[in-house]
Amino acid sequence: MKLDVIKLDGGNAGSVELTDEVFGLEPRADLLHRVVRWQRNKAQQGTHKVKTRSETSYSTKKIYRQKGTGGARHGDRNAPIFRKGGIYKGPVPRSHAHDLPKKVRKLGLMHALSAKAKSGNLVVIDIAEADGKTGVLAKQIGALGWKRALIIDGPEVNEGFAAAARNIAGLDVLPSIGANVYDILKRDTLVLTKAGVEALEARLK
């Protein structure tokens, strides 16, 4: 697959050949769903917590005698049946992460890249460099029409470019090692540098 390469100022910078093995697959929604679900579950904190009957602050004294009251038998006020008593089988801190084979994760990333290429929302730029000025970069991004974009660079992101992009709403910048299915699908436009294309192809082949 051949794609035109542009510069940040909108100029032409030649073309690049994208490997069909990585960018030319037929996207599968089931694979993308599995990988996104794995990512989000792994990121979930799992710090939700309720108090059980051993942790509430009532007395443990029996509230009234066992027999002769005409009412039900009860022990202390911490029982789940009472207001402000302990919660039965409520959430406790835990990990929500689950396993996903590496082959599926790799395939999911390839399908996410292919989905952007197929929909025409994949852009390749020559290089992602800036002098750290947010205003200048914001004008360039606006002129290119990128409203919600993810820019993936090579092994390392240019410091000036990262600093300039930091305060632009709807723009994310990642090194190639940080490329992931969730962030790619979350943004409307996927922008790869030539170094990013090389790094992703080397990683996924």
From TrEMBL:
Signal peptide: none annotated. Belongs to the universal ribosomal protein uL4 family. One of its GO terms (biological process) is translation. The keyword Ion transport does not apply. HAMAP family: Ribosomal_uL4_B. Forms part of the polypeptide exit tunnel. One of the primary rRNA binding proteins, this protein initially binds near the 5'-end of the 23S rRNA. It is important during the early stages of 50S assembly. It makes multiple contacts with different domains of the 23S rRNA in the assembled 50S subunit and ribosome. It comes from the Bacteria. Pfam families: Ribosomal_L4. Gene3D superfamilies: 3.40.1370.10. GO terms for molecular function: rRNA binding; structural constituent of ribosome. GO terms for cellular component: ribonucleoprotein complex; ribosome. Part of the 50S ribosomal subunit. Keywords: Ribonucleoprotein, Ribosomal protein, RNA-binding, rRNA-binding. It comes from Citreimonas salinaria. InterPro entries: Ribosomal_uL4, Ribosomal_uL4-like, Ribosomal_uL4_dom_sf. This is Large ribosomal subunit protein uL4.
